Amino acid sequence: MTLSLNLGANSYDIIIEHGSLAKAGKYLNLNRKILIVTDDGVPAVYADIVAKQCKTPIKITVAQGEDSKSFSTLELLCKTMLENGFTRTDAVVAVGGGVVGDLSGFAAAVFMRGIDFYNIPTTLLSEVDSSIGGKTAINLGGFKNTIGAFHQHKRVLIDPDVLKTLPKRQIANGLAEAIKMAATFDQELFQKIEREEIDANLDYIIERSLMIKKAVVECDEKEAGLRRVLNFGHTIGHGIESYENLHGLYHGECVALGMIPMCAENVRKRIISVLEKAGLPTSLSFDPERIYEAVTHDKKADGDKIHFIYVPEIGTYEMKTTALTDFYQTIKEAFPQ
Ligand SMILES: NC(=O)c1ccc[n+]([C@@H]2O[C@H](COP(=O)([O-])OP(=O)(O)OC[C@H]3O[C@@H](n4cnc5c(N)ncnc54)[C@H](O)[C@@H]3O)[C@@H](O)[C@H]2O)c1
How much distance in Å is there from the Cα of 251 to the middle of ligand 1? Predict the structure, then answer.
């Protein structure tokens, strides 16, 4: 299946095909210098399969985990390209999850003011969400995605077979973003996850999630309006993530927790039960004040007000703004100590 993301001059295709990793050379222009970026948690064979199809591959394996979304790793990627004589006509290929995608996409965005970027996402989270839409970033001072750029891909290649090696908890992590999209836009997808066996429907979940993200990004490439809906669960989720970094919760797990306070009572029950079915956390055991502090550092806070997405009914959303003091109360009530 091919989805075309229509963004004028920045348009690109997303190819979803079992076994497509071995055909990367057919779908991507690898007949030039290619910086392949992966991490040491991604089975090395995936990047090697891609490297074999490149004319001049240079492979970098960064350390797995959020800490690689840093200035020092960015410098390593850019220096490697410089030392290997990369020019503006060469390209970067990410073979990994959202960390590798965000980091290497940002390197592609800033190296020589922007070179081609291909993404081959290998986690469910990156296949349903982070591999499309052009958001690239690194973290700074413990805060997520503070330094970044919009840099659309040249093409995205999704081979669902790579998920066979992904641990169960990482599958659940990706399901959180799919549940987020279903809750705000797609009642049918939500019901499918709610009523049917999740593993048997992974291809369907990937395709439907991508269709939702595609439609949203096409309306609002640079997050001036509609795209903020994709932040459902992220206002509190990013706060938890900044604070919880030390405690080891994954991005999708933080988003899962972040969705719980931001919906109507009857919706909350359904979301909690779907999150539990997917193997995601639904309660917190730490100080809500710390999360509030982290949330107010986040980019969604605006003076003494905060913007967030609220789900009144499954498949719909409202964009809301509230005073920070009320927001603190909401966090406290949703996660009683
Ligand atoms: N750009 C965007 O629009 C966007 C959207 C959502 C999230 N994100 C970012 O994505 C990041 C999270 O991405 P993630 O959840 O993919 O985490 P990740 O990239 O850290 O990958 C999770 C783990 O799985 C391992 N792994 C990857 N593929 C594997 C495979 N096929 N088999 C076995 N192990 C594998 C990795 O080594 C890593 O240890 C966060 O930094 C978040 O901010 C970006």
Answer: 8
